[in-house]
Amino acid sequence: VQLVESGGGLVQPGGSLRLSCVASQFTFSMYSMSWVRQAPGKGLEWVSSIISAVGNKYYADSVKGRFTISRDTVKNTVYLQMNSLKSEDTALYYCTTNGPRIVRRDLGYWGQGTQVTVSS
Q1: In what order do the strands lie in the sheet with 77-82?
Q2: Per-residue pLDDT tens for 85-98?
């Protein structure tokens, strides 16, 4: 199983970014996919999940209304569209195969992360 994130970068407050996570070597459509982030000096924080089969989407309160998760099963890719970014969104963003609110690194598969920095 391989998960490769991309799309991070430096953006000003109020700006937008779209993260991508390309999955390979497993049946993508059978897995729930999530985004988890880790801010400097802080623990892992679950951000959003999309559930396999039904496609239900879930968001942490801190990002609800600003972030949108989606997936393309043909491209084996999950996305996180991030709008109205705030400085507190600065973190390393991971793609995982876990379901909602799971942040244990010993569960599921994880990518290497992509850095998002929100600063003026």
Answers
A1: 2-6, 17-24, 77-82, 67-72
A2: 999 999 999 999 99
